């Protein structure tokens, strides 16, 4: 139970959506078997719709894991998309490279190996979409490093923002997660109130924030 959506409703949605096929289906099975966090099925399908509407040419992802989301992006958008993704876990990097090669997207997806706080400093150019799916307690740090790389009219997607409902209400909270919960609440307060973003919080999966960048931020310290 996620504490976000009623379990019966969640099961209905997942059973009603079209079943994933091919390599992505295999990766979903691998993720379950090896307890690897990837986007939930209903979130993956929402991302596909957003990708088809937004049609981003350049995507920056923070948190690659086994490459599931990057492959999903490339599979949806085709061979013209460029995806840069960051991952520090060596075992995940090895598996992601294997999966990306199997998917045939070696020319589309580049993995920056190492700590995101360091590797993001090296990323150049602008992006049409940014996907945050890494350490939950560091979202604001990553955000400050990447938001100026997002084009005006671009889309920022932050996954896992409700963290099993703990961010939404203290009744769900675990004491040892208090720092992460506090930081995520501060992050959400910021992206929901700053004047250069339009943000929607969506209670599916583990919670998703969609932020449309309507202008550049005037004060980088705001």
Question: Can you offer a commentary on this structure?
Answer:
The protein is an alpha/beta fold and 222 residues long. It has one domain: Vaccinia Virus protein VP39 (Rossmann fold, 3-Layer(aba) Sandwich). The protein is 40% helix and 20% strand. The chain is built from 8 helices and 7 strands; from the N terminus they run H-H-H-E-H-E-H-E-H-E-H-E-H-E-E. The chain has a 7-stranded mixed β-sheet, sandwiched between helices. Strand 1 (58-62), helix 4 and strand 2 form a beta-alpha-beta unit. Helix 3 (41-54) packs parallel to helix 4 and helix 4 (68-77) packs parallel to helix 5 (90-103). It is globular and about 45 Å long. 36% of the residues are buried. The model has no long low-confidence stretch (mean pLDDT 94).
CATH architecture: 3-Layer(aba) Sandwich
The CATH top-level class label: Alpha Beta
State the helicity in percent bands.
40-55%
Q: Can you tell me the CATH superfamily?
A: Vaccinia Virus protein VP39
| Gap from first CA to last CA | 37 Å
The number of helical runs is: 8
Give a short overview:
The protein is of the alpha/beta class. The protein has helices at 7-16, 22-34, 41-54, 68-77, 90-103, 116-119, 139-146, 178-193, and strands spanning 58-62, 82-87, 109-113, 127-132, 150-159, 197-202, 208-213. The chain has a single domain, classed as Vaccinia Virus protein VP39 (Rossmann fold, 3-Layer(aba) Sandwich).
């Amino acid at each position: 139970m996620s504490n976000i959506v009623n379990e019966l409703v969640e099961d209905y949605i997942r059973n009603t959506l079209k079943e994933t096929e091919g390599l992505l289906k295999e990766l979903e099975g691998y993720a379950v078997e090896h307890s690897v966090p990837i986007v939930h099925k209903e979130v993956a399908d929402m991302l596909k719709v957003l990708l088809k509407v937004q049609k981003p040419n350049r995507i920056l992802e923070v948190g690659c894991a086994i490459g599931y989301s990057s492959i999903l992006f490339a599979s949806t958008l085709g061979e013209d998309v460029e995806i840069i993704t960051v991952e520090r876990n060596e075992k995940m990097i090895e598996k992601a490279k294997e999966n990306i090669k199997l998917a045939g997207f070696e020319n589309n997806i580049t993995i920056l190996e190492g700590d995101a706080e360091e590797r993001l400093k090296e990323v150049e150019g602008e992006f049409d979409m940014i996907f945050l799916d890494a350490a939950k307690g560091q979202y604001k740090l990553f955000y400050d490093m990447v938001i100026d790389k997002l084009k005006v009219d671009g889309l920022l997607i932050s996954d896992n923002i409700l963290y099993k409902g703990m961010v939404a209400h203290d009744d769900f909270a675990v004491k040892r997660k208090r720092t992460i919960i506090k930081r995520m609440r501060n992050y959400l307060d910021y992206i929901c109130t700053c004047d250069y973003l339009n943000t929607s919080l969506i209670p599916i999966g583990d919670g998703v924030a969609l932020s449309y960048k309507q202008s550049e931020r005037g004060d980088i310290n705001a």
